[in-house]
Specification:
By secondary structure, the chain is mainly beta. It has three helices and 28 strands. The protein starts with a strand and ends in a 5-residue tail after the last strand.
Length: about 325
């Protein structure tokens, strides 16, 4: 079951627990919450590594704008972020994002951070659907559902307090290890996708999803990521995106699957800057469907395999993919 936490603006007490949490905020300052999926308890305060919550859902009932959540262990939840709560940072506590069962308990569970589907009762939904601006996710191993995305940044056509807009979010130093899709962007502005590893997605690593028709995904930045081992990589109708210093393999089936497509399905994007990337695609298929761009994009200083040198050399490709 998907859980949406909080139906009131953060300026109101969403529950009695929120009133208690307010007492823990000297001068209204942002605070840090702790979640231990293996050894925590939702009956604890959540304010110390020695008294962590067990579920991310519990933390979502307590957070206010500007807070941080630090977690370890294996989160098995599908959640929707609270409305009118902004600029929350969710951080996995392992040194590198890896499966939380890679080492014997209890050390393995307490030194790694995984977010995956419930052990039973999973629904067709993202692991985390983000509704408001400025949310950041760092150092998490994502193992997503077979029929949805790991992370979904949503923007709709609401106004005032009824607007749901996950623009200005970021995903850093995460690993997307399995599932249908890694990240969905529904018309959000200024997302930063940086220094992540995408592998094992059966659909797409990053996919632009149509919504209320507010806008094309505007000024997204995808940099220093590794896209390798998934069926398809990046597809969205980007407008003024910067896509730089990424590594792309050839996708699940070279010459027929998407490596990088900046036009998406809507075709409303334009004026993107794609430079300094390394593509496994051969010179002969530095074009559709592997690589697709808008006429107003700038593609420069990208490197792909030089098929004229028996696939062992490299040559820089300048200009537009065909």
């Amino acid at each position: 079951m998907v859980t949406q936490v909080g139906a009131m603006p953060a300026t109101f007490d969403r529950t009695e627990e929120a009133a208690v949490a307010a007492l823990e905020r000297p001068n209204g300052n942002a605070v840090t919450w702790y979640v231990d999926a293996s050894g925590g308890s939702d009956g604890l305060s959540g304010r110390s590594p020695l008294a962590p919550f067990q579920t991310m859902a519990k933390a979502f009932t307590r957070i206010q704008s500007g807070d941080t959540i630090k977690f370890w262990g294996k989160i098995r939840e599908q959640l929707i972020t609270p409305v009118q709560v902004f600029d929350v940072t969710v951080i996995g506590m392992g040194n590198r994002p890896r499966h939380s069962d890679d080492a014997p308990a209890p050390i393995g569970g307490r030194s790694t951070s995984t977010w995956t589907t419930p052990a039973s009762g999973a629904t067709t939904a993202a692991l985390c659907k983000v509704l408001q601006q400025g949310w950041s996710f760092e150092n998490i191993l994502w193992a997503g559902p077979s029929d949805h995305a790991c992370l979904w940044f949503l923007r709709d056509a609401g106004s005032g307090d009824d607007e749901r807009d996950a623009s200005h979010g970021s995903v850093r130093k995460c690993r997307f290890a399995s599932g249908q899709d890694g990240i969905w962007n529904t018309e959000c502005f200024n997302l930063l996708i940086e220094d992540n590893i995408f592998m094992g997605m059966t659909g797409f690593d990053f996919l632009g999803k149509a919504g209320a028709g507010v806008a094309a995904p505007l000024q997204n930045i995808l940099q220093d990521n590794i896209f390798i081992g998934s069926a398809n990589h990046v597809k969205a109708d980007f407008s003024k995106a910067v896509i730089r210093r990424n590594v792309f393999d050839d996708g699940g089936t070279p010459n027929t699957t998407v490596v990088l497509n900046t036009t998406g399905d809507g075709g409303s994007g334009a004026n993107c800057f794609i430079y300094g990337n390394v593509f496994q695609t051969a010179t002969a298929n530095f074009n559709t469907p592997d690589l697709v761009g808008n006429a107003t994009d700038v593609w420069a200083d990208n490197i792909s395999i030089d098929s004229t040198a028996a696939g062992v050399g490299s040559s820089k490709e300048w200009g537009q993919p065909a």
